[in-house]
Structures are given as C-alpha cells and as structure tokens.
C-alpha cells in the first residue's frame, strides 16, 4: 500500500461532488512538503486562460442565469480577496518551516484566485468596477457579513498571542475547513456546473484550476487540524467547527438576498427542491470532513448545528423580506 | 369561435411563443405536446421560463390546489390560463 496513493486520494478531496467520501480518515494525510510538491506541478496562469473569450456568450445569458452567475462570482471574489489580505497572520506564526513554506504557496494561490475573479468579472462579464462598486460588492457579500468578522477576530488573536496553538488552529479551522472546505468548495463546483451548462470555457477551466488549488489547501487544513485534535485541542476544535458549520448554513441560505420566488407553483416546487439539494450538498461536506480530522463522533452535533443555522437564517429572511423563503413557502 | 375561446387560443399561442424563445440551445417553434425535458429545459431554464411568463402575462396569484406539474408545453398553457382567470381549453 503506497503512501503516494493515499496522498493523491486526499489531495483530491474537493473533487468529490456527491455521496459520502470513500476514503478513510485514518491520519494518513500528506505532509506539507508533499503538498508543496503538488503546488510546483500544478501551476497555471490567468493570461493563458484568455478570460475575454467568454464575453460573447455572456451577452446571450438570460437574466436568471446572469444573476446566479454574478452572485456566485461576486461571493467567490470577495472571499478570495479577504483571504489574500489576511492569510499572512497564519503564515507568520506557523508552527514549523514546512508549514510556513506551504502557507506561502497558499498566499500566492489566493492572490491569483482573487485576480482571476476580478479579471473575469471585468473582461468576460463586462462589469465596470469602480471603488464604490467594489465596496458595494463587499457589503452585499453574505460571507463578508456573517463569517468574515469571526475570522478576522481569530486572526487578531493569532497575532496577539504570537502563534499560540489554540488561536492558530482556530483560524485554520475557520479558513481551511469552513471557508474553503465547506463554503468555497460547494460554490466552486456549483458555479463550474453552471459554466459548463452555458458554455463558458474560460470560466470552467479557471474554476477547475481554483478547485485544484483549494483541494491542496483543504488537505493541509485537514492534516493540521487532525494533529490538533490528536493533541490537546480536541474540545476547542470541536466547538470552533460546530460554530463554523452553523455559520455556513446561514451563509448558504443568505437571508440578505431576496431569493427568486416564482408564483407558478410547479416552478416554485422545483426551485425549492433545487435549493434544498444545494444546501444538502453543503451539509454533507461538513459531515464528510469530520472523518478526516478525527471527529466522526461529532456527526450528530454537526447535523444539529447545521439545522440551527438554517432555522436562524430562514427566520431572518422572513423578518427581512416580510415573506417566507421559497424553501418554506409551500 | 367565441371571444373567450379566441382569447384562450391566443394565450396558448403566446405561451408557446415564450417557451419557444427560451428553449436552451436556441429559439425554435414548439408544440403543445412537447415535453420540457425533451426541449432541454433544466431547473435553471425552467425558472427562467416561469419568471418570463409571470412578466408576459402579469401572473401574480398562486391558485390553491393548482396541479404541481409543468411537464409539457400544454401544462404551461393550462397553468397560465388558470392563473389568468380563464378556464383551460380542453385538449390544450
């Protein structure tokens, strides 16, 4: 049984779209050096993607498809910009040189992702970005509103304690497992499916590259978190993860954005089923990660945290918009 | 042909026109018997279609007990006629 095979399987975690993971979370996740080696082999450039080749197709998109794509790309762009601006605190206080070297590659990746989404929105989708537009996108982002403040506070603790393991691993859970493993992974796969559906080859290829990068980052986060769980931080990691799952459920619902709610009942039923299926995929990602970090016994608590997040967000939606969310409208 | 029947016929034709204009992969003429899935409508395209029909026919109410099916173009014609307050033409 080769180590390489296990490492390759783990590196492909984010590629699993549906169904429970077939891999076993037995601690044989790759070391930072193996992930660094993968990074060297998996380089890509925005210039070679030629994002502007998608522009003619954007002109043919109908309003719903355009709205869904722009919302997804905006969320991804805001998330990448946030990470690229803040990840350095983790890098600076990494526990070892190997961790520091890998996190350096991640910082470079995140910068490329942010640039990719910005270039794509400008050159393919045709958005004319201004300072006020960028600020508006930030304000509109559900991730920026619900989870970024939590992560920012954790990073301040990392800096204030100069790398104390407790806040450092807290931030890793929030960055790698929640932001990337649960939220970004779902959004990236879903957006890539839409890109394929509407024949947007530059977007599909670019998202494929981003997914591959994020898969390495997630694998690093899983391995680091597993070490913390096996050490003295099990209770702390469990609490942070459950809070992150609850926030992820709220972000999935996004109470701040009015959901499309067709008045034709059959279309409404279909819309409800579609949203419920998307949320379920996100929930399953949250559950799947537990095996890899040695917290399989937390499945029931994770389900409850997810349900709490959904209930909170759906109530918030009804309060904000004065009507039930389409998922609960019938 | 009575005025009511003429309205229903015209509505059915307009529905088919809207459906045909939104066929994924390119606009085409559609028949009442065509199935949406055969025409290439997936969930996103169906949502797009429903919202376009709402705008085109100013549909605002959700009738109680409305059939939960939108499988064929005829289903949509019947739905729009029901929501617009007119009885569906038989054999639509």
Please provide a written account of the structure.
Chain A is 75% helix and 0% strand. Chain A is mainly alpha-helical. Chain A has one domain: Ribonucleotide Reductase, subunit A. By secondary structure, chain B is mainly alpha-helical. Chain B has a single domain, classed as ACP-like (Non-ribosomal Peptide Synthetase Peptidyl Carrier Protein, Chain A), CATH 1.10.1200. Helix content of chain B is 53%, strand content 0%. Chain B is built from four helices and no strands. In chain B, helix 1 packs across helix 4. The longest helix of chain B has 19 residues. Chain B is globular and about 35 Å long. The C terminus of chain B is likely disordered. Chains A and B meet through helix 5 and helix 14 of A and helix 3 and helix 4 of B.
CATH topology of chain A: Ribonucleotide Reductase, subunit A
Distance between the termini of chain A: 52 Å
Q: What sequence of helices (H) and strands (E) makes up the elements of chain A?
A: HHHHHHHHHHHHHHH
Count of DSSP-assigned helices of chain A: 15
- Per DSSP E runs of 2 or more residues, the count of β-strands of chain B stands at 0
Largest contact between chains: A-B, 20 and 25 residues
Query: What structural class is derived from the secondary structure elements of chain B?
Result: mainly alpha
Radius of gyration of chain B: 13 Å
CATH superfamily of chain B: ACP-like
Query: How many β-strand stretches of chain A?
Result: 0
Poorly predicted regions of chain B: 86-92
The tally of structural domains of chain B comes to 1
Radius of gyration of chain A: 19 Å
